[in-house]
Amino acid sequence: MLGIARPSLWRHGDFRKLWTAATVSVLGSQVTLIAVPYIALTMLHASVFQVSLLAAVEMLPFLLFTLLAGAWLDRVRRRPVLIAADFGRGAVLLSIPVAYVAGVMSIWQLFIVAFVTGTFSAFFDVADQSFLPALIDRDDLVEGNGRLQVSYSAAQIGGPTLAGNLIQIVAAPLAIVADALSFFISGGLIGLIRKREDKPERMLDAAGRPTSLRAEISSGLRYVLGNRYLRSIAGCTGTSNLFGAALFGVFPVLIWRELNLPPAFFGTVVGLASFGFLAGAALSGRLPRRFGLGPTIIVSAALSSPAFLLLTLTPARLEWAAVTLFAGWSVLGFTQVVYNVAQISLRQSITPLAMQSRMNATMRFIVWGTIPIGSLMGGLLATLLPVRLALVIVALGSFASVPWVLFSPLRSLRQMPEEVGGEGADRTGAAEPLLEPVKTQATTA
Predict the structure, then answer these.
(1) 422 within a domain of the structure (yes/no)
(2) Does the pLDDT of residue 161 top 80, yes or no?
């Protein structure tokens, strides 16, 4: 019997709005990603530890708030949260150029802005990954995540080039206006999405009473830790992000202070190297079909660490710095897009819709909660040791992420599991259905 071809998501009006919002937002965020550490190092004369602490403060809300956010977001509609978080981030970022024009910009303001925008991002990211399965069909998730990664990749190609040249043409704080505007545009586009989610039903305990947030947070933790697919992905991603954050928290010191590379040069090279992201997005649907979903996750995870190591070897001569940055960033972009599309699609596919927010929040707590710890670790190492030696040490440490997925049931997983996972997940990751009602810097989702 011949299968019926599914219509392309390009014809899905609401998905196009979400896709465009993501593209604009990620494009703008590339400006802040380069501009903020540049401001700290060159305009506010921050120390190595302060720069790494700035990166840690931005990600600290993922450690503090994501579990609470996940339980709460399984009780409410996610679209209004996405809109509010976008508008909130845009407004807070505008305080940087305003303070610069007023002559009162300080490192403490950057810490406050980083924490507040990080808090909005913690709620946005949990809601965002939970919103997609409510917007499109389950069978479209791999395509949908792949399309979104294409937008992220395109933004990461043009974003760093735009950021580097903006910083060199205008003052870095004024360049951040572009990112603030991108959040306002993104929030407006999400507001135009027509499909309305059904309001989730409150879960009830055995006595028929509404469950508490604490109980719902616990159920999310049990769900993730009790599923061997999710547990191995969380371990791999969390370990990679721990050492990746240690590296990228200090990497601006190597680029701006040790090597003194021009912002336009750095942004242009990184932008061109981001074609690796685009290639990864283009192949993210084909590779799992050709080699299997699990092997794709394992191999893509294993190739990220050599790319980390290569970046730490960036030399001072511009021509060789261009080669090293291009090669390392290209490989890193390719592998992380392939890894993210495969593992996020798997997570979304095996999780009931009513558990999506808690699953994503628990995963965010584990895999992004290691980022502030890693940033502080990198800052301490770079304070006690030469900067390049500290970077090499953390790059070598990132190889510890691979055994989590290499020695797991993912090795034999060829295609998306048929059954939806639940709290009673068994040792292979399969489970009885749950009873109703339940991005660079370069980091992995």
Answers:
(1) no
(2) no
CA distance 288 to 342: 7
Question: What confidence tier does 169 reach under pLDDT thresholds 50, 70, 90?
Answer: confident
DSSP 273-292: HTHHHHHHHHHTTHHHHHH-
> Which CATH number does the domain housing residue 177 bear?
1.20.1250.20
- Return d(Cα 127, Cα 129) in angstroms, integer: 6
At residue 156, does pLDDT exceed 70?
no
Q: For the chain, how many structural domains are there in total?
A: 1
Is 201 among the domain residues? Answer: no
349-383 pLDDT, tens per residue? 888 877 877 888 788 889 888 989 999 999 999 99
Select from 36, 270, 80, 75 the least CA-distant residue to 160: 270
Question: Structure tokens of 60?
Answer: 């600290």
Alpha helices in 94-171 (DSSP H): 95-102, 107-135, 141-169
pLDDT of residue 427 exceeding 60, the answer is: no
Torsion of CA 281, 285, 286, 290, to 10 degrees: 130
Q: How far apart are the C-alpha atoms of 222 and 231, rounded to whole Å?
A: 10
Asked whether residue 60 is assigned to any structural domain, the reply reads yes
Concatenating the DSSP letter of every residue in 288-343 gives HHHH-HHHHHHHHHHHHHHHHHHHHT--SSHHHHHHHHHHHHHHHHHHHHHHHHHH
* CA torsion, ordered 328, 330, 331, 333, to nearest 10 deg: 110
Which tokens belong to 393? 């040490």
The two tokens of residue 210 are: 């509404």
The answer to whether position 319 is within a domain reads: yes
Q: Which of 108, 121, 101, 104 is nearest to 25 (CA)?
A: 121
Q: What is the pTM of this model?
A: 0.75
The C-alpha atoms of residue 159 and residue 34 are separated, in whole angstroms, by: 10
Handedness of CA 323, 328, 331, 333 (dihedral sign): negative
How far apart CA 227 and CA 191 sit, in angstroms, is 35
What span, in angstroms and rounded, lies between the C-alpha atoms of 431 and 436?
14
